[in-house]
């Protein structure tokens, strides 16, 4: 029996010319949220709460991201 894993999709659009990927991390409790920061306005668009490394991998795979910056 084969097990097929559904590829996750997200509702937030990513434009690399106008945005860059960011992980916002809390210094206090270690919570992490993946999303995109607008280069012009600095506005952060939240995409996914990261509970496990698999969540981070799914985020990177869905948007074709290799490197991602972490902000505290």
Give an overview of the whole structure.
There is one protein chain. With about 70 residues, the chain is α+β, with helices and mostly antiparallel strands. It has one domain (about 20-70). Helix content is about 15%, strand content about 35%. The chain has a four-stranded mixed sheet, covered by helices on one side. The longest helix has 11 residues, at about 55-65. It starts with 18 loop residues before the first strand and ends with a strand.
List the helices and strands and how they pair.
Elements: E1 19-25, E2 32-38, E3 44-50, H1 53-63, E4 69-71
Average of pLDDT: 89
How much β-strand is present in the residues? 25-35%
Q: How much helix is in the residues?
A: 10-25%
Query: What order do the helices and strands follow?
Result: EEEHE
Shape: globular
Features:
72 residues, alpha+beta, four-stranded mixed sheet, 1 helix, 15% helix
Could you write a compact summary of the structure shown?
With 72 residues, the protein is an alpha+beta fold. It contains one helix and four strands. It has one domain.
């Amino acid at each position: 029996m084969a097990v097929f894993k559904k590829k996750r999709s997200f509702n937030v659009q990513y434009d690399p010319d106008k945005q860059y990927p960011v992980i916002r991390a809390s210094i206090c409790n270690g919570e992490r949220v993946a999303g995109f920061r607008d280069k012009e306005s600095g506005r952060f668009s939240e995409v996914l709460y990261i509970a496990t490394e698999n969540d981070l991998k799914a985020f990177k795979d869905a948007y074709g991201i290799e490197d991602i910056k972490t902000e505290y």
